[in-house]
Design goal:
heterodimer, A: about 80 residues, alpha+beta, Eukaryotic RPB6 RNA polymerase subunit, four-stranded mixed β-sheet, about 20% helix, B: about 400 residues, PTS-regulatory domain, PRD, Alpha-Beta Plaits, 4 domains, four-stranded antiparallel β-sheet, about 45% helix, flat
Chain lengths: ~80, ~400
């Protein structure tokens, strides 16, 4: 299998720990389920060090077209 | 050229500009050359105020603005750009049909194609690039030689073309091994015994003499893929300029991204295809979003409509990938999943939505724009979402 994370279309994905999740939800004043979703089986999560479980939050660091880097969060589902 | 002094840096870094704009400001200042500190300050302030002016205000209807900003240029796209020999004689759907295909998130594009980049040693050597080409382009029997049916002996005879074999199996040790490979493929796919009466002649026949079986075998023979990837019918090789020299890039007709990424010689970090669903399956939602934005922007740019701001396309990409899969814009996707009954009914197939809602006893909370327009209430956008409250002034006595 190819290492998907090396592909230029795939931004960095990292799994957040509990405290970081709290921080994110507080910053945006939202519930966890308000976040955009990502499937547990998503190829981009396949090669991460830890396996992503449903309920985890993933930080996606995109190389944005409009600013330097754009950080978005996705909730792992299913 | 004026060097960027510490003073200039202090001015620029003091602004609220994002890094990318700061870089651009530095570049421009450097190009301009001799500028006094005051002039630099003026320029930077002007840039900053422009930037702050163009930021989106709270309660701005960004979705509506995006819809109009993509829709209006869309009206200028030509309908009849069906096929067009643009990129190295490949047929690629362009213009409005392609744009519709993208926002509809079709499972399979009209003209699937891949852009295959090669690893360095393959990318600079035409011979080696061709090795990869033959591993991608599907090779069928009609490309390899002449097929004839001998009804008298109940035999199918294939007269293989030696040059073609050498061309398509450049890494093979000998002609015999290639012919043996081909016979092996035929016998395993068709379940017949294959003989090679001459070095480049292969023949076989049905077990029982039967004219129908013989023709059936020829039919099936034509569909066997001897080498390459079944979905890819053609590969075009092109020399392209890069930052450090030239490289060969392959463009394909038909796509199978997963298979190609695993091939030897293929640069799996830059190869992609125009099927968003395939990108989604192989590389994930985030890659699919990127790819959607790229494809849409390229489609618009090809039609000279590249002044559509990328942010609108990014918004569409965000919405389409919001649930972790790819959803289309429209009745079966985003618009069909709206919370509000009235909003769905207002989009398409009004009666069905209202009927279903009535059967299931759905309630509409009138939170969105469409619902409120229908019932004639102010919409909750812009000034419509601002409530004013007045309290009696503390010093009410003074007024007396």
């Amino acid at each position: 299998m190819v290492d998907v994370s090396q592909h230029e279309l795939v931004p960095d994905h990292t799994i957040l720990d509990g405290d970081e999740i709290e921080g994110v939800l507080e910053e945006y004043n939202i519930k966890k389920t308000d976040l955009p979703k990502i499937k547990r089986t998503d190829p981009a999560l396949r090669d991460l060090e830890a396996d992503a479980e449903a309920g985890d939050v993933v930080r996606v660091t995109r190389d944005s077209r409009t600013t330097d880097r754009a950080v978005v969060y996705r909730l792992v589902v299913e | 050229m004026a060097a960027i002094t510490e003073d200039v840096e202090a001015i620029v870094e003091d602004t609220e500009l994002p890094n990318r704009l700061k870089e651009e400001v530095y570049d421009t200042l450097e190009d301009k050359g001799d500028l006094t500190i005051e002039q630099v300050d003026d320029i930077v302030r002007a840039v900053e105020s422009q930037y702050l002016d163009t930021r989106v205000d709270p309660l701005d209807p960004v979705g509506t603005v995006s819809a109009q900003s993509i829709g209006e240029p869309g009206t200028q796209m030509t309908m009849n750009t069906f096929h067009y020999a643009g990129v190295a004689d490949l047929d690629v759907t362009q213009g409005l049909p392609r744009l519709i295909e993208l926002v509809d998130a079709r499972k399979e594009p009209d003209t699937p194609t891949m852009e295959v980049h090669l690893e360095e040693e393959y990318a600079t050597d035409r011979e080696r690039a061709h090795e990869v080409v033959w591993n991608i382009e599907s090779t069928k029997i009609l490309q390899l030689g002449d097929v004839s049916t001998n009804v008298a002996d109940m035999l199918v005879q294939i007269d293989l073309n030696e040059d073609t074999l050498e061309e398509r199996w450049p890494t093979a040790d000998s002609l015999e091994s290639v012919v043996a490979d081909i016979s092996e493929s035929i016998s395993s796919s068709l379940g017949v015994e294959v003989r090679t009466p001459a070095p480049t002649v292969v023949e076989f026949g049905p077990e029982e003499p039967s004219y129908r079986d013989l023709l059936q075998l020829v039919e099936e023979l034509r569909d066997i893929v001897f080498k390459g990837i079944e979905e890819v019918t053609r590969v075009v090789i092109r020399k392209e300029e890069t930052e450090n020299g030239e490289e060969f890039v392959l463009y394909t007709e038909g796509s199978a991204l997963g298979d190609v990424l695993d091939l030897e010689g293929v640069d799996a970090s830059r190869t992609s295809c125009n099927n968003i669903h395939e990108v989604y399956r192989q590389l994930g939602v985030e890659a699919a979003r990127e790819s959607f934005i790229n494809e849409t922007m390229d489609t618009l740019a090809d039609q000279g409509l590249d002044d559509v701001n990328i942010r609108h396309l990014m918004l569409v990409g965000d919405i389409m990938t919001n649930r972790g899969t790819i959803e289309s814009i429209g009745r079966h996707g985003i618009s069909g999943n709206k919370e509000s009954v009235l909003a769905r009914a207002a989009f398409e197939v009004t009666v069905n939505h209202l009927l279903d809602a009535a059967i299931h006893g759905e309630v509409d909370d009138l939170n969105g724009v469409t619902e409120n327009v229908i019932v004639g209430k102010p919409i909750k956008l812009g000034t419509g979402d601002v409530d004013l409250r007045m309290t009696a002034r503390d010093g009410a006595e003074e007024a007396d």
